[in-house]
């Protein structure tokens, strides 16, 4: 993506974040393996992010924001595994913002391709009363503070925030070698 000052700022477009991503994809061919980006209110917005990761390491994450009306969380994903406390291993790990639990988590991982991915997730209650988990819909997205090459702070909007609220979930991810 070029300098954000040279890009279309979609905040005043009347479009959702998702519609802006689709329009941007028509304007500029997406690069495989690179998260799409748009500009919203002067900030670069993404739906996901990849952090360079060692083959074996530890990922530490911390939720920094207070809970909001929508249940939110984040996913961590590797081409390999993340190890849970009981020793079981998963490729994608979902952590919900639950005030009754510690806001900090830490997991060992094995990463084959050198990238640890993350994105925000949220729960939506449908008109029929069913609760579903979603990501990347309507006004979902994040802007990213690059603290260092392996540490980031994510400012996220869930999909049903109108207008987008990129402070409704804030979390930090740090990747370290073991």
Assembly state (oligomeric): single chain
Number of strands: 11
Largest sheet: 9 strands, antiparallel
Structural class call reads: mainly beta
What order do the helices and strands follow?
HEEEEEEEEEEE
Radius of gyration: 16 Å
Low-confidence stretches: none
- Please report the distance between the alpha carbons of the first and last residues: 33 Å
Mean pLDDT over the full residue set: 94
Number of helices: 1
Structure characterization notes:
With 178 residues, the chain is mainly beta. The protein is 6% helix and 51% strand. It contains 1 helix and 11 strands; from the N terminus they run H-E-E-E-E-E-E-E-E-E-E-E. The chain has one helix at 17-27; strands at residues 37-40, 43-46, 49-52, 56-63, 72-83, 89-96, 104-125, 131-134, 141-148, 151-157, 169-177. The strands form 2 sheets. Strands 3, 4, 5, 6, 7, 8, 9, 10 and 11 form a 9-stranded antiparallel sheet that branches. Strands 1-2 form a two-stranded antiparallel ribbon. The longest helix has 11 residues, at 17-27. It is globular, with a radius of gyration of 16 Å. The relative contact order is 0.23. The model has no long low-confidence stretch (mean pLDDT 94).
Concise overview:
With 178 residues, this protein is mainly β. The protein is built from 1 helix and 11 strands.
Write the topology of this structure:
Blueprint: H1 17-27, E1 37-40, E2 43-46, E3 49-52, E4 56-63, E5 72-83, E6 89-96, E7 104-125, E8 131-134, E9 141-148, E10 151-157, E11 169-177
Antiparallel strand pairs: 1-2, 3-7, 4-7, 4-11, 5-6, 5-7, 7-8, 9-10, 10-11
């Amino acid at each position: 993506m070029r300098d954000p000052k040279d890009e279309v700022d979609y905040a005043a477009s009347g479009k959702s974040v998702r519609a802006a991503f689709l329009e941007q994809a028509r304007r500029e061919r997406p690069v495989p393996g690179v998260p799409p980006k748009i500009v919203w209110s002067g900030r670069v917005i993404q739906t996901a992010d990849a952090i360079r990761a060692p083959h074996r390491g530890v990922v530490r994450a911390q939720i920094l924001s207070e809970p909001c009306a929508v249940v939110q969380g984040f996913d961590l994903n590797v081409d390999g595994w993340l190890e849970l406390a009981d020793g079981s291993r998963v490729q994608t790990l979902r952590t919900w913002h639950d005030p009754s639990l510690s806001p900090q988590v830490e997991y060992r991982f094995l990463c084959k391709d050198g990238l640890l991915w993350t994105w925000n997730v949220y729960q939506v209650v449908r008109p029929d009363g069913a609760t579903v988990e979603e990501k990347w819909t309507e006004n979902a997205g994040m802007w990213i503070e690059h603290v260092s090459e392996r540490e980031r702070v994510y400012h996220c909007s869930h999909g049903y925030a109108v207008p987008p609220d990129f402070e409704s979930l804030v979390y930090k991810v740090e990747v370290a070698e073991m």
